[in-house]
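Researcher: Last one for today. Full complex below.
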Amino acid sequence: MATLPATAPKQPIISIRNVTKRFGAVAAVDNISLDIMPGEFFVLLGPSGCGKTTLLRMIAGFEVPTEGQIIIDGHDMAHVPPNKRPVNMVFQSYAVFPHMTVTENVGYGLRIARVASSEIKSRVEEALALVKLDGFGDRRPDQLSGGQRQRVALARSLVMRPKVLLLDEPLSALDAKLRAAMQFELADLQEQVGITFVTVTHDQDEALSMAGRIAVINRGLVAQLAAPSDLYEFPANRFVADFIGSVNLFDGRLVIDEPDKAVVDCPEIGRIYLNHGVTGPHDANVHVALRPEKIAMIPEAKGKPSAPECPEGDNIAHGQIRGMSYLGDITIYEVKLDTGRVIRVSRPNLSRYDQEDFTWDDKVWLSWHGSSPIVLLS
Amino acid sequence: MKLFAKRTPLAPLEYTKKLWMRSWVGLVLFFLYAPLVTLVAFSFNDSKRNIVWRGFTLDYYEKALNNDSLMIAMGNSLTIAFLSTLVSVVIGALAAVMLWRFRFPFKTTTEGAMALPIVVPEICMGVAMLVFFAKVGFPTDLPWPFSLGAIIIAHITFCFPFVTMVVRSRLTSFNREEEEAAKDLGASEWQAFRDVLLPHMKPGLIAGALLAFTLSLDDFVITFFTSGPNTITFPVKVYSMVRFSVTPEVNAASALLIFLTVILTTIALKVQSRMGGTPQGH
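Model: Here's the assembly. Have a good evening.
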């Protein structure tokens, strides 16, 4: 999924400038600034209560910022009510009007805008076709499934041809299969209509699969703003590393830090070698993140391995399997290191018998590439 | 033989098959409806004294319908019920929306004060109304529809809290995102109210209106204290007729009121069950 179209103008479609929202003494959104570019699929990701929904509702106009400015398409939205903003929202509950048919629901905004009825008819049909609901026009919402109601909500917003479409937890109410299908469909839809999408979610899979860029929000602050793969492979801090995907975190001391290598001494796992410098303060206390899938595991009987691109003896650990969880495509092992620390290692089941290679209480050697560990200063 | 056949044991929820349970339900229904059935049955009795059954006749219905003062009372009652319902629904619905939507100082107190007319004994309300109208010097010599003013005001005070109650409970199932969605699509505050909130309230408004109408129609105590010689309502008239003797005419008049109330209550229940049956999302 492309991040930015090559022809995109430099002017952001939404500019959030030093926005703070306080509820009493609590700052739900704490001095956030970010720019959203036209045509982008932008995701606000964070745990529940982090302020992401408040931020979305401020863009829609349902909440007023305590401080700061929200600029949409070059206009300050300070005194613009929700019904006058060039954005439309798909609500978490879909908020489809229960007493109107699908056609009436989708045409509602156009009727309010006093668009000619012939044009309403053609635009509603077009919007229903876009969300693959052709022929459902005469149904009532209680005759639709949850997924279909969501499509009605989407069509109802898209028919207004907004500059930005806001989606509040769009997939949270769908079952797993439908959610996976809808992730692709939303991304396709966004490419098709070319409207900027801003989505709020707490689900990292959803965010990673759909987004061009993700802003990870924690306690009202932007923890990191980056493309999905950058968030996963180059998290900026402990929170992002831990929140996105699964990770083993170690505390350690940065003992060597040169342009082409670094070594962190971690009491819980040993010396961790990196094949690049981290430019941190010397001798500083740091965290090291190591993803479970980047750790290779071999039986003890095969002998002590040597990790690739590392000096002999670095990036190696010895332990015993304490737990296994077989997930079909991968198996996750809990390995208790000789130091007593338990870490997670995941292993793809490349052949149909791979899960039989290891079992409980097996002694194993672990090793990882010199580029795999991530040093986090905060 | 059948009598001694081995009985299949009853499932836990088949208690309605037990004899004692059935007879209990029968007794309850008997005591509930026997007086009413007797009243309606004897309205067809061909006897002046109305103590023993003498044969079927519709004479007393004819007599009741030709009794001018009774029909005037009926007309008064229907006028009062209609007007006080109209005002009660408007005030009651607005109060419900206010209590549901806004936070304001003394909200709980306001809520309690509004429910007070429901729990205060009617006799107290009646006396209070009598004293109030006397103290403010409410005019008693107005021409017809306006002469009912005092009774209408009294009825509104005890009818609108019921409307508020029904409408408010309906509002709790409203998904506020629907209203936000309407605004998001360009609707003004008023348009969102008209197109989204009002349709949601509608079953509550209808049920509340019917409730207010029946309450007003058959109220005796409060009306008795607020009505004058020229503003007799149907229940008050029936009461004054009964003081002389219980003729079949009184039965016929009462039966008419029962029919009217039953019809309205049935409609109210129908509407209410429909509003409970519609799926609401969440």
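Chain B touches chain A at residues 175, 177-178, 180-188, 191, 195-196, 199-200, 278-282 (CB under 8 Å). The domain at 72-277 of chain B is CATH 1.10.3720.10 (MetI-like fold).
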